[in-house]
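Late entry, evening session. Most of the bench is empty. Finally got around to the prediction I had been postponing all week. Sequence below, unchanged from the version circulated by S.P.
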Amino acid sequence: MKRYAVAFTGPSGSGKTTLIEKVAKVLIKTKEIAIIKHDPKDKAIFDKEGKDSYKFSQTGAEVVVVSPTRTTYLSKRYKELDDIIRIFNHFDILLVEGLKTLPLPRIAIFRNKIDESYLDYSEAIAIDESINIKEYNIPQEIDILNLNSTSEIIGWIEKNAKEV
């Protein structure tokens, strides 16, 4: 089974989560999708204080919570991409939000202005009409995508995703 991965990056508030959601909703119709979200500021809340799963996760143990509708994996340990891929096991396409140091094809997302520091580790940028592309020096090898065209983004993913 071939599995592919692509990453999304960009400043806070640029629309990364929204774009990944849109892409996943389309791809899930024909493929198995896995998503990794990076929480660089450690602000995500995975469980409610006082509940058993919260108490278990506070021990530092690897915790899996299983219910009739979902399975949640909580870890207090850093995982390499290969470790995470093994946890997911079955997927066709892995969408990664953040983790800009991973060696994956990457779409940088921008609204209102482009932060050129993202260009060094991006193969494409997705922008909307709020950006005048002529005001920036975008390297020729970087593809420019329409942030509001889910089909264009998916086409780029299908052409450029890396086998993992």
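Two things to note before I forget:
The first helix runs from residue 16 to 27.
The beta strands are 4-9, 33-37, 63-66, 71-74, 93-97, 106-110, 124-127, 143-146, 162-163.
Will write this up properly tomorrow.
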